[in-house]
Sequence to fold (850 residues):
Amino acid sequence: MESAKNLKKYLVVIVNVIIMAGILVFVVLYSRFENRDSYRRQIAHFEDTTVTMEQVTANYLEGEQRICDVWAQYINGKSMTLEEAADYIRASHVLNNTSAHIILLDTLTGLSTRPRLGTSDDFAVSYERLNLLNDVKWISEIGDSINITRAYTNPMNGEQSLAFCNKVLLFDQENGSEKEAVLFRVIPISELEQKWVFPQTELVNAEISLIDANGGYILKGYSFKNSSFFEFYESYNATDPESSRELYERVTSSTGTVSMIDSHGQECILAFTPVAATDGWTMLSLVPAYDLNSKTGDLALVGVVSFGLFILFISDLFYILYFNKRLQAAARKAESANKAKTDFLSTMSHDIRTPMNAIIGLTAIAEKNTADEESTKESLRKISLAGNHLLTLINDILDISKVESGKLKLSPLTFSIVETVENLVNISQPMIKEKNIEFSFHINQIEKEYLYTDQLRLNQIYINILSNAIKYTEPGGSVSVDLREEKSDVPGCIRLTYVVSDTGIGMSPEYMETMYTPFSRQVDSRVNSIQGTGLGLAITKQMVELIGGTIECQSEQGKGTTFTVTLDIPAADRQREDMQLESVDVLIVDDDETMLTTAADTLTSMGASVEQANSGLEALGMIEHRHLSGKDYNVIIIDWKMPDIDGLETISRIRSEIETKTPILLISAYDWSDIEDKAKAAGANGFVSKPLFRSTLYDKINDLIGKESAAIEPEDDYSDLKGLNILVAEDNDINWEIISAMLAMFGITTERAENGRICVDKMRSAEKGRYELIFMDVQMPEMNGLDATRAIRKLENRWAASIPIVAMTADAFSENIMECMDAGMNGHIAKPVDIKLVIKEIRRIKEERV
Fold:
């Protein structure tokens, strides 16, 4: 017997040792695997970042070439002499560190827009000693590609420079013929180097260089050595002719990464990608391998081994199995409870912060503009919109059972889609500004501005989708919104189609199959770094289906996502009519073709005569022409952000150069507060946010030209509420002041009872019909609202005992509402009170008592 027991002990020890060894081997292997996988992910991220930098480079090159093309197009269209062309470009300069050279092809001489270094009036420039013109590759049509020179020494100041080129035809006054010339937009290399700084995150030692097709440096990082990159690589890495040729072909024709040794003998990762906008340029990024190869798992190894030793050496095998089962069950329960708490707090933080950003920002704007009554009113109106949205979120968070059971209910009311869109844009502005995202918002065929549905649920749908697009789009990307009205198959309804597209990280096909499942998130290193719980899409889909609509999604990893929400919404009975402008000539200026077309169509439909310009320079020419002919525009509408000269500079030049007093309206999809002072100083007469609704344009234009709007904003008729007298049981002085002032705006009189006992006494002595109903607070001294309601219901006076009582309290949980109903109340309104809900409740009770 003793021998058998010893044998069992030895078996237990052996089994424990085997298990310990297995745990140790597993942890070591798993740690190595995790390190290798993490290293591969870091290399992929480094390569993606390099590609992003290339896109920034391409956008910059295209922008510089576009300026050169605009100059050339203008010169070719005006038949200018050499001197006139130089004067025009000199006047068009925005940046002080750039210049332009116009070189005659027959003499290789010409004029510069900047004087020779050390002089003030020597503008003559010669390219006779430079073999630069033989390298220029011309195009068949202006603006279809990039024409850029190799690096060369600027003959006017000796700086190393690059030049964007185009051909121009100049008029020769001596013989009356045209001469071919080359227009150079000259950019110093030092200026380019300042634009490419690697994102300083965990890649603190990363460096960027640009090379040409032969490996020569255009921009050179500190760690890149020798006169060319390929010479640098061969100097410190073992190569042969075949491997050198393969490396050259890979680096100059594809995107990827390679491992190499630098001049310090340390291993580095080189990421490379072609610059698409140029001929033969390649962007190179170099980072030490140890920056990417982070060691993880050591602490996990020590923890697992220590835990295993502790358990295995204080318990026998059977007790371990027993306790493991119980521990696993407890761990799952604790993990589930902890996850629920974490998800709840994260969701509350994410959803509440979105409208809070708008409230805080608009409050700061209102404080800054207290002297501007109109601006302050507008800020307060937007704060109210964001506050209503925030109130809905808080109500949903507090009443958790609504989300868990899927019993969200709609509260339809008449509202303006214009207010909804303005709220959407205002709430999104802080996130857009923080990430420097290119943002556009287009509307199309919006005829019915007043709709009838649950506005706050609609807000949540639109905000959730847009905020996700912004959140998962990397800095420098773009997000676009398209809202259009279409004919609905449902009688009395219009179909609103809401499309949000982004250039973000996209979603995998596998994740898209489960993306509407609560708490589901895509497995992606980039997603893991972004706060979220996976509840947004699930709740959004639930709300869309509750309203009776559909939600669709197209997405591709690395390219972006497009969500389309289609809702059939009843049109409200009240709409604005007769929005017609009287004999107004309008010029609208924007580089966004879609916006130009829709805005022009809208203005034309209201009777305006509309002309369009795609840039600030084009607009200046059109405005000057009209001014000289004595037929100024009545209104000029100008976009803020444009590629050649922006809206502020355009307005400034209109006021200073043309000296017209035509009212100018500045438009933008971005935050107005950043440029408000500059816009007013430049000469803008007003501002309006994109998108441009019909009523917004109508009111703004009439305001600018000094006419009253003929179409009056429809208002509710509240004549049925005048003369009502309501008893309000409220112990808080401020709350009483608020509710009495709100009701007074609708012609409703109120009397106050400071606590529940006073309220009961007033009802006991009141004559029949004195009060229409009672608004009852719940938490009050001496007698609370529940006890006061019960006491009123027991009064002998039949009229007093049956008076409608509505709870008006901060107790907003489902069980609190049921407690009020059980006490004999007829309704419940949660604080802070929404006056629209208060009026709706008063009318409901009036209808029930008829």
User: Anything to note?
Assistant: The domain at 347-570 is CATH 3.30.565.10 (Heat Shock Protein 90). Confidence is low (pLDDT under 50) at residues 138-142, 525-529.
